[in-house]
Amino acid sequence: MVFENLSDKLQNTLGKLKGKGKVSEKDVDEAMREVKLALLEADVNFKVVKNFVKTVKERSIGSEVMESLTPGQQVIKIVNEELTNLMGTSEVKLNFAKQGPTVILMCGLQGAGKTTTVGKLAKKLKKEGKRPLIVACDVYRPAAIKQLEVVSQQVEVPFFQMGDKISPVDISKAALEHAKKNGNNVVIIDTAGRLHIDEGLMEELKEIKASTNPDDTLLVLDAMTGQDAVNVAQHFDQDLSITGVILTKLDGDARGGAALSIRAVTDKPIKFITMGEKMDQLEVFHPDRMASRILGMGDVLSLIERAQSSVDEKKARELEEKLRSQSFTFDDFLDQLEQMKKMGPISELMGMIPGVNKQALKGFDESGSEKAMKQMEAIIRSMTVKERANPDIIDNSRRKRIAQGSGTQLVEVNRLIKQFKDLRKMMKQFGNFGKGKKRRKMKL
Length: 444
Ligand code: GDP
Prior knowledge:
The protein is 61% helix and 9% strand. It is an alpha/beta fold. It has 3 domains: 4-87, SRP54, nucleotide-binding domain (Four Helix Bundle (Hemerythrin (Met), subunit A)), CATH 1.20.120; 102-306, P-loop containing nucleotide triphosphate hydrolases (Rossmann fold, 3-Layer(aba) Sandwich); 312-443, 434 Repressor (Amino-terminal Domain) (Orthogonal Bundle). Strands 3-2-4-1-5-6-7-8 form an 8-stranded mixed beta sheet, with helices on both faces. The chain is flat, with a radius of gyration of 26 Å. Guanosine-5'-diphosphate is lined by residues 108, 110-116, 193, 248-249, 251-252, 274-277, 281. It is found in: Cytoplasm. GTP binds at residues 108-115, 190-194, 248-251. This is Signal recognition particle protein. Residues 100-274 form the AAA+ ATPase domain. Part of the signal recognition particle protein translocation system, which is composed of SRP and FtsY.
């Protein structure tokens, strides 16, 4: 989960204030001391922490808060607002060119996740109806060109390369011409990464930038590197004047320092975050939603968006129809399992639900629920086509065969079939209810 440690600590500290009918200045001081420690431990920039705590304290000690009916809640609200402010208030969208193809220049150190992120971004833009082109400008590592090509194929986006003998500036110019001729309206340029910032790299990036005049210059940063990421951001921004950051690997055990300091230190927005290696694990960064997630207040909007982007609407409508007409089969059940898997790990989804805080999730066995899903899948896949379409024919001997075929126990097969039948029964009741209502309406 995102920033688990920080989140736990803040929730614990603020939880103590929550129920209080009266909050004294001393209570606020105490809480802010703990908040300060938690933020420093999460590797948030020292100056940022100092300012943050000062602002929250000043706002909390005002009479409006102290004399309100729920002072504890008010302090939490202020912390939430100030955390959001730290990260930049609201989402900052990509800049699109008014004329000609939009150019996005991607830069970053080696290993930050740049190549993967280029693919994710291209996929997202394509889904939004754009026609992106991915351009390979890392001429120092032939393997990098190949890796990017594989990523492009994976996301089914056209790929442009000229090998490693031509200068990145010439490649990017040629790529723009190619895009204009072929109707690509977004050009994503991948550049070379180095292990450390070096002058040669910066000079080359500056030249590419000057010759392509990008609408966005995005720096890809690894969230796991904490304050180092912030230093890298400062450096790149000074030399290259970036327009935004993409923060990667937020699914790992990043402490939060980078996400919480970058905006405050560089004044450049985080535009996207990535939360995994799969090509659809890139999200628009919403500071307000991130603050809510950190404070365990949930993030329902992101949850809904994720569901919308993973669920195929046509399939959902068909499913609804099938449920109503009770022609729902085990094949449809399997389809549902597939769709759920696409939404991401269950613990991550649960973390977005308000009220489900980190403490509650501690005992949640992720591998258990994933295992159960795999088991259901194995059982259904061991059924014949006829059995899946008409579960009523699955008698005892068939059940035994299915258990054997799927490497499960008979009780597990029985349980799944019972669940399926219960679901059908429930839908039948809903169906009847609907009909009854219609009939009543007609009588009127
Ligand atoms: P580059 O050197 O900057 O181009 O980095 P790559 O795109 O090759 O990524 C380096 C490693 O980080 C690869 O193993 C990626 O799969 C992994 N990676 C990239 N983004 C994420 C992410 O959001 N989460 C996780 N867990 N791994 C990531």
